[in-house]
User: Which sequence fits this backbone?
């Protein structure tokens, strides 16, 4: 049985956690309340918006949110962090914690073409989608 509320965390809440939020919302619908946040929120990355749109997922209501702005932290059942090379935000609620560590697809410190950067976002999107599907199978199990 799925938890009532899942929170995806990364640093900027711009790419990985946004991808996870959109994919999980699509997969679980109203059965699970899905949110995302970060310790240094910025903006939703345009490449994240683009690769989600390729799947027909609308991100119009998505915004980058600070982890401290999460309402009722004790109401969160599962926290999934996506940070890899950076330090993930601390979440003080009593939720179960899991790590889906993966590199930031934006690769800010690498000189990439738009096509190469878009490819990195597709790879991250597909990896996160596979983990969301595995999570759904676990809950259905």
Assistant:
């Amino acid at each position: 049985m799925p938890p009532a509320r899942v929170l995806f965390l990364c640093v900027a809440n711009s790419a990985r956690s946004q991808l996870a939020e959109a994919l999980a919302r699509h997969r679980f619908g109203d059965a699970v309340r899905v949110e995302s946040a970060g310790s240094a929120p910025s903006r939703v990355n345009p490449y994240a918006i683009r690769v989600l749109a390729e799947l027909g997922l609308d991100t119009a209501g998505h915004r980058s949110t600070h982890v401290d702005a999460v309402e009722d932290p004790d109401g969160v059942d599962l926290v999934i962090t996506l940070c890899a090379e950076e330090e993930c935000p601390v979440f003080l609620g009593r939720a179960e914690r899991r790590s889906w560590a993966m590199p930031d697809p934006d690769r800010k410190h690498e000189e990439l073409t738009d096509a190469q950067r878009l490819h990195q976002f597709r790879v991250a999107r597909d990896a996160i989608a596979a983990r969301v599907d595995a999570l759904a199978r676990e809950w259905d199990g």
Observations:
- The domain at 5-140 is CATH 3.40.50.2300 (Rossmann fold).
- DSSP finds three helices and four strands in the chain.
- The chain has a mean pLDDT of 93.
